[in-house]
Amino acid sequence: MDCQEEQLVNTICDLYEKISKLESLKPSEDVNILFSQLVSTCIPPNPNIDVTKMCDTVQETRQKLIKICGEAEGHLEHHFSSILTSFEDNPLHHLNIFPYYNNYIKLGKLEYDLLTQNLNGLVPRNVAFIGSGPLPLTSIVLASSHLKDTVFHNFDIDPSANSLASLLVSSDPDISQRMFFHTVDIMNVTESLKSFDVVFLAALVGMNKEDKVRVIEHLQKHMAPGAVLMLRSAHGPRAFLYPIVEPCDLQGFEVLSIYHPTDDVINSVVISKKLPVVSNGSIVGGPSCLLMPCNCSKIHAIMNKKKKMMIEELEASREEQFS
Q: Which domain, by its residues, includes 217?
């Protein structure tokens, strides 16, 4: 690392020390200030920073920080979901009170565009979101703005999260009829996974590499061949906030594309498709580990020439939209 990158990592580690000393990670002035500083430190794109190659001490700090961020994010979503469900009219009309709502709008549009390109225009009928939490904004944004006839099944292990999320959408005459919540460990869900055209895996389901890969292997075993798996990842300094998903983690899937945002959307997006299984039980093909190193302004994918041109046109239009 050069001096500037070393200074950045030291700043992140210092913030971790301050955050780890907080009595509670529930929303408060101190919590909000420190996490705002952390996010603003990690967001500027710096593809030269590879957290996987840093020393063991930094790696240990990163793992602890990801866990703390996950806990704080859960408290934040629970807090705002509770506020939203207190509105007498439709709570979904007030989602903009959530401080990161605009990020979810951008992320939802990005993921919808990627889905559209890689499904060749076909609209998924049934979508699963694993790790939906008390404020299932991805499902809500996609259902209300992009996939207006699609049924969404949200899975979370926390019953209180699902209770709040269900109450949140219950007043909406359309969304409430197309959104369902299941309180279950996804590792105990098997046959029903075959019914989904698209499965989203939240960034904080599997906070370390081993747990993440274990969940992916379970999905590969039970998803339908040809079904799409959408994952959240992280790149550069943003990997101090969320786990990284690499193409080689996706055994049994074809990686279609990877996108690393450069704006205030923190998560990278990985879209993959479950490979077919032949009669002897072996998988046709394997994970696409030949993806070009993704810079922060292009979509790189292993695809035929036509698909590649479509993705490049998509990215050009997105850059024009947000410029």
A: 1-276
Which residues, in sequence order, are CB contacts of 78 under 8 Å at separation 6+?
A: 134, 135, 160, 161, 164
Domain CATH for 249: 3.40.50.150
Establish if 319 belongs to a structural domain.
no
User: For residue range 258-285, what is the model confidence (pLDDT) as tens digits?
Assistant: 999 988 899 999 999 999 976 555 555 5
- How, if at all, do strands 228-233 and 126-130 pair? unpaired
Provide φ and ψ at 291, rounded to 5°: -60, 140
Whether 307 maps to a domain, the answer reads: no
Tokens representing residue 287 in the block: 């994970």
Per-position DSSP letters for 288-301, written without gaps between them: -TTPPPP-TT-EE-
In a domain, residue 134? The reply is: yes
Q: Calculate ∠ Cα 231-267-103, nearest 5°.
A: 115
| pLDDT for 119 | 85
Q: Rounded CA gap, 206 and 120, in Å?
A: 30
Q: Closest Cα partner for 268 from 54, 51, 56?
A: 51
Number of domains the chain is built from: 1
- Alpha helices by DSSP H, listed for the chain, are 3-20, 29-42, 56-84, 101-118, 137-145, 159-169, 175-178, 209-222, 305-322
In-domain check, residue 299: no
